[in-house]
Write the structure tokens for this entry.
Amino acid sequence: MKAAIYPGSFDPVTYGHLDIIRRAAEIFDELTVSVLNNQLKTPLFSVEERVKILEEATKDFPNVKVDSFSGLLIDYSKKKGVHVAIRGLRAITDFEYELQIAQTNKLLSKGELDTVFLTTSLEYAYLSSSSVKEIASFNGDISMCVPEFVAQLIYEKYGHK
Ligand code: ADP
């Protein structure tokens, strides 16, 4: 069975992430979308909230599971017995950063963990969790960026109804 992990902040999940999830779930038998508990970032949603949002947003994909982890991806993937990490690429700016992480993970895992990149669908190339949050904080329209229930939760965080 071919399994993969899609790690990320998902603060919150956007249509860009969901597009990568849908496509990765078609390539792999089992996909675990895993929320990274990153102490260095101050998130809008807690890890528990992000996991719940992802569970709801991916409920129609039978081979997708949602989880969370802290620490190094190589330790987490080893514990899970998974050898492939999924990452999405939007632009050349993502590439440099992602290449560095992928190569570091390959080295640290002694060759055990490979990264598979899926390139963004063009309609989501502009989308990022940070821009969605910025637009929502000014009560702007984010309906083309995230599912309706996610948009509601974001507006609530910013005190918009
Ligand atoms: P990070 O894990 O870097 O904190 P995110 O949770 O925002 O960031 O993203 C997780 C992964 O999804 C990253 O590989 C990122 O490049 C990718 N990604 C984010 N937004 C999109 C998008 N609109 N289209 C394709 N991939 C995306």
Summary: The chain has six helices and five strands.
